[in-house]
Amino acid sequence: MNIFFSGSIRGGRDDRDLYADLIEHLERHGTVLTEHVGTENVEQTEAAAGITDGEIHDQDVEWLRGADIVVAEVTTPSLGVGYELGRAAETGKPVCCLYRPDSAHELSAMIRGNDAFEVIEYRDLEGVESRLEEFVREYR
User: Which of 15, 89, 109, 127 could form a disulfide with 122 if both were Cys (CB 3.0 to 4.6 A apart)?
Assistant: First the structure.
C-alpha cells in the first residue's frame, strides 16, 4: 500500500516530531511516499539539493497520484496541505485528516465540512493510533 502523508512544512514545523511518529506508525502498513515531511531541516535539504518549487510541486503531485490513501495532520494550518487535500478529493482517494482540538487553530470548515474526508480528533499519538489503524485497514 502506498501512503501519502501530508503535514505542514512552510506553514510551521512545530509538529515535526509528531509527523515523524505518525509516519513511523504508517510505515508498518505500507510505503510512505512522503516520509521527508517528518524529517528535520527538510527545507534546507531541498534548497541544498537545488530543488525548485516547481519540482517540489510536480513530485508531490506524482506521489499523490501514486498513493492508495492520504493521511494528513491538519492541526497546523498549511496552504500546501490544503492544496494536496483538494487534489486528493478530486481523485476520490480515501483521506484521513488528523486534528488536535486543543490547539490554538480552529479546523477549517472546508476540511470538517467535506464528507469525503474522515476527520479524527485526538489529543496524543497513543490516542490516535488505533483509529488510524482502522482507517488504513479499511482501505488496504
Answer: 127
**49 belongs to an annotated ligand binding site:** no
User: pTM higher than 0.70, yes or no?
Assistant: yes
The C-alpha cell at 47 is: 534548497
In this model, does residue 120 exceed pLDDT 80? yes
List C-alpha distances in Å: 95 to 33, 48, 53, 71, 114: 15, 32, 25, 6, 10
Whole-angstrom CA distances from 90 to 8, 22, 87, 93 are 21, 25, 5, 8
Q: Please give the domain boundaries of the chain with CATH numbers for all domains.
A: 2-138 (3.40.50.450)
Q: Is 108 annotated as a binding residue?
A: yes
